[in-house]
What we know:
The complex is a heterodimer. Chain A has twelve helices and no strands. Chain A is globular and about 75 Å long. Chain A is mainly alpha-helical. Chain B is 37% helix and 23% strand. In chain B, helix 2 (101-112) packs antiparallel against helix 3 (116-129). Chain B has two domains: 6-85 and 170-264, Rossmann fold, CATH 3.40.50; 97-160, no CATH class. By secondary structure, chain B is an alpha/beta fold. Chain B has helices spanning 54-61, 101-112, 116-129, 145-157, 175-192, 203-209, 237-242, 244-262; strands at residues 12-22, 27-38, 43-47, 69-74, 77-78, 86-89, 163-167, 195-199, 212-216, 223-228. The complex binds adenosine-5'-triphosphate (ATP) and magnesium ion. Residues 21, 28, 30, 50-56, 91, 219 of chain B line the site of adenosine-5'-triphosphate.
Amino acid sequence: MTENALDTAGRKAAAATAAGESAVPAGNSSTGGPGPSTVAGPPPGVGGRPPRPTLGRRALGLADSLWRPALVLAAFFAAWWFVAAQEYVPNYLVPTPVQVWTTMTDQWSELARHTLVTLYETVVGFVLAAALGLAAAVAIAYSRTLDKALYPIVLFAQVIPKIAIAPLLVVWFGLGFTPKIILAVLIAFFPVVISGVAGLRSTDPELLDLAATMGAGPWRTFRKIRFPNALPHLMAGLKVAVTLAVVGAVVGEFVGASEGLGYVLLLANGNLDSALLFADLILMSGIGIVLFVLVEIAEALLIPWHASRRAGVPLTTS
Amino acid sequence: MTAAPARAGTAIGMSGLTVRFSSRRSQTTALDDVSLDIEPGEFVTIVGPSGCGKSTLLKIVAGLVRPTSGEVSLLDRPVKGPQKEIGFVFQKAALLEWRGARANILLQAEMRGMDRAQAARRADELIEMTGLTGFEKALPHELSGGMQQRVALCRALLHSPPVLLMDEPFGALDALTREQMNAELHRIWRETGTTVVLVTHSIAEAVFLGTRVVVMSARPGRIIRTFPVELPAHRDYAQVMSDPRFDRLATDLRGLLGSAAANH
Ligand SMILES: Nc1ncnc2c1ncn2[C@@H]1O[C@H](COP(=O)(O)OP(=O)(O)OP(=O)(O)O)[C@@H](O)[C@H]1O
Ligand SMILES: [Mg+2]
């Protein structure tokens, strides 16, 4: 009875996880189009499987999943424009969309430079966090000693408000890129470790038994079984991490910087320049969205079979 | 690649195997003093009530579970860790969800570092033989349970192992496919001379395939009796089913299994 319940739970967990290696044609993946969900298949030897959806159908699927949020956004902009244009709220507090747009185009060269600075800090921080986080996850998943020594510390360190470390980092490393990158790494590290450990631990023990009867060493078992199996978990963690990395970089800039979107935000705030403030906010969100979508795309390419099992919209944290 | 059919010594030797699983709350004796010798080329089928330790027994032979006491040997060598001279078909298909059927079969070759071209040819033969043609690229979730199990069987046969351990491999198949697979497995066994140990809940399967049927008791698992199967080495499914010797053995087994379960 309990045995069965456990078994089912395990299988569900396994189904919810697992991951991709090549060998699989990019199928009805991220678009969540109306592709075939299951193919029970005709009796042995008879025929093949229905074709995967074409590019056109995938584009249709994408459009289908995007028009609703687009409509909501459009409604939001209309409301904003209406409120600001009618001056229900004073203009120095809420500028009109047109004012924001003009600010953005007028100061584009300056803003672009600051955006690149923040983007650079974010990407470097994210990549470092991903690499270090994965390494830590592997160490924790493979070594009982490290699991016992390191994991509690990683969990506990999460309690420290990392934003509060920012001033200290500026004192130590000055006003350059370093403190921002370190802060981004510190914030983005945690979700990578947690998801990596969860993914690596989710391997079906039977698969590990199987690997043992195939005489495979730990490296092959890792490469062919444990790592691909951990990928869906890991990608979910990376999606969280990439948005957190933006937060890290911007907060680092708040505390002490001479460039970057966080620095511009403080300036605009000081000058009560709400149009610049809004433009800056939009650029920050843009960085987050673009990086998030890039990770989504990487996910769709790495684990197409997983995306194909996930019903619905492409832009979701699985 | 094919195993030598006539080999001196024993393929599998078990003596006094006892296995206890203890957790904080309880202690289970899964196997109690099990001894069994299996000759090379034999096809031994094991039947017994659910939970009597059949899966555990296979895992001990494969070196995946360490017995609490007792000795096991495989191909005349003591089993100390996981064994690789075997093909193992697990009770669940245990496929990699991200690989297509063919790639799942070829996992065996990749993990062993076998010759790629040769393994690919063998995989195609096995796919053809088990009726998986047309589904080479299908992912496990796109396959029926029976097809998944056939993929697992192909994977276990890819390297032509001298010993094949199978844990209810056809449990998920419909009756007709199951008969076909039985006949197929019988043919493979005859042609390769592989030693096979197969766990099953089907009395018909146990008798049709086995040269010897081992009956186990409910927990703690013991061997109650072993029956030699007095049927020709070369068997035809329809013929066997209508053979009076088959009927007699099946009736005996049913009676014994009934009492084994009732005693519990
Ligand atoms: N890893 C384990 N830890 C604790 N108990 C276990 C473990 N593996 C098996 N058992 C127990 O050992 C007993 C035998 O299990 P086993 O899986 O070998 O049975 P089985 O004969 O294969 O049953 P079935 O026919 O249902 O597959 C069961 O009572 C089971 O609960
Ligand atoms: Mg079992």
